[in-house]
User: Fold this.
Amino acid sequence: MRDSLLVRHFLRRFLDNDLLSPNADRHEVIATACAALVAPGLAATVLLSFKYQFVFNPPGVTSLLALDDKVLYFGCSMTIMALVAAVTWDALSLDARDAAILGTLPVSRWTIVRAKAVAVILFASTFAIALNLLPSLMYPALLPGRALPVGLRGFLQLIAAHGFISALSGAFGFLAVLSFRELLRALLGSAWSRQASAIVRGTLVVFLATVFLLLPVLSSNVARLRLSPESSAPVVMPPLWFLGLHETLAGGVLDGLPRQDLHPFFRQADAEATASYRGHGPLFRRLAGTAVAASAVLLLVAVAAYAWNSRRPSDVRGTRRRRGHSVVARAAGRLLLVRHPLSRAGFFFALQTLSRSAPHHLAAMTSVAVGLAIAAVSLRGVDLRLVPIPLVAFVPQTVLIVATAIGFRHAVRVPADPRANWHFVLSWSGDERPYVSGVKRAALVRLTLPVLLVLLPVEVVLLGPAVALAHFACGLLIGLLLLELLLLDLRRLPFVSSFAPAENLWGWAGIYLLTFLGSVYAIASLERFSFTEPGRTSVLLAWTLVAVIVAHALDVMLRRKRVPIDLDELPAPPTQRFDLRG
Amino acid sequence: MLEARRLVKRFFGITAVDDVSFVVRPGEVVGYLGPNGSGKTTTALMLTGLLDTTSGTVLFDGQRTDADPIAFRRRLGYVPEEPRLYPFLSGREHLELIGRLRELPAASLDRRITSLLELFQLQDAAEQDIASYSKGMRQKILLIAALLHDPDLLILDEPDSGLDVTTALVLRHLITLLASRGKAVLYSSHVLETVEKLCSRVLVLHQGRVVADDSVERLRTAMASDTLEEVVTHLMLRQDPETTARDIVDVVTTRA
Assistant:
């Protein structure tokens, strides 16, 4: 009774996440999360099954084709579950609040730890089931098409194997992050790991989101590109381990189908595909062994580290800010001439919120991940040492700058903490211009400049110092221009006003994406054309600078008229947003 | 001078504050007393403009505060009942944010924050996240934030809540000194002993209505009581505390 009460309490705590607004409707959050988990899997399954439903593929070809889909499924399950663990990072073990509230009750520490562990397992299992249930039922059923006589036993075997391996991949992803977190705590101690947690979590989110977005690319042509003897993918790509396990458990269902009735037209292709598939048999068995061993080791490490860290209550001491951080921020502020008190307020508050508040940090990191993924896809298979320099060599920097600027626009619309808004209400002078100007400069320091500086050495090597520097300067100006343009119509106070979701975002998503890619390639073409001659370079930089100045002047002009900003407004209730008022 | 004129606040038809009027003059410390749920905090929120009134007006130096709320808030220092602060900022960073929003010059702001953090004995925790602060430490940050810009009017809603003995004594002297320098102070508290020592006048609120508004001496005389506690007991108590305590002990100690 007491155990189940504690488990229910901890499960509810997962919804008290930093990423949810205190005004959010929990039922709406759960419904949206379920829809977000179920719908993409369903849509992907339908799309992937077209090639089996509308085209006849003999057993060998089907086995080979399905390898790509399975890597995609297992990879998605793994990365999404790992992302879930990264997002709920702080709620994965008992924290200081739990220790303070539950520690005074006559309940043994191990009962509380056990309840927390059960809650984490239930939470992860629910997510994994919601994510994998429908694809696990539908995909194996659609895989053999209408023509392959798999039989009921074969169907059930395929469904069971797909479901089991998808869940195991998800558990692997979740456990990997959990083990990493617990090892970090065990090695660094509670206080230091809390200091490092924002950076570690941010880096993890960037890495996992990038991998997730690259999965369609990584899972194409698996047999030829990833399973070849010279490929290192079987060692570094965990989804392949689980593919090996799946094929070892259920690969025989399709591979063992009779071929004697096969139309002569398909015999040759099937024979080649079957030979190729069976050629990977020993590798599949090796990969299956790796999957089982790795999962077992991960489980042991996670349990041991979790138990070790749960020996004593969490350290309730807070995070101490390193003076170095504020020294750098102050130096950057001086350099960017942030002098007006309100500009300083906007500049420092934006820097602090972007780096320390979980939803803002996550928005920034996700935008970097999206940029990295698009950049990686555009660079795929391109030899950057070619002369003249290929167009795509100019793409990554612009993609990353545009992506981070869009992420920043989203971040400024999320309040840092609506409960503390009253400070702004009582201290606000009514002039948003200096404050917004400070916020933009913070974005330049926190997001645009790091991207440019990280890419600069790589570009010096690839493009040569002169072109790389011109590209850097152009990137800086484009970053400034974007920050001006993206905040031009925003008449809300960055990081303070209530979150207002964009109207019909999904309806416009395709157009936004096309505009995004079109603009990036247009800028890349312009850069490649201009950087061939110093004169053209100067003209491009001068015009971009003029565009920045014009955009800034326009922004100042638009904000001259003071609009009363209501900082107390609450977001519209869900019924109103869905227009269900009747 | 702060003047509340016939303030009324209703929430979903329930009257929280009913026809409350009073004046706080420069140099005056007015105590604002009442049991939990009597409408003290609602009144304070309406005075600051953080909550709209259902009816009634608030005037400061003869001007309606809603006519130019920004000008009014420049002269206002407020300590709320609930210490809501940005948890990811350190104490110093939070004060810097408030000072900058109030457009205080950088050099003097730094000096003032450092001195006040030292005087409130928060220098060691100044760089620590507010999330890890105790209630008393948060209260100190709120007090410093309310004083940073040298306001003419202070509205303090249970400012002594969670404070240690030393700081509570400092606060008591601080309020007296601020009043002696011409600041108007509205002081809401449950610590009647402090209110009795500090306040020149006392307002007693009960079920949203002002049931007494006079100096402590005159209230004592009128009620034939020795202390403010007895006055408040006469005005507010609808139950015998001793009987209630006995009933509680009975409930707690009765075995099922």
Remarks:
- Chain B touches chain A through 36 residues (CB under 8 Å).
- The mean pLDDT of chain B is 89.
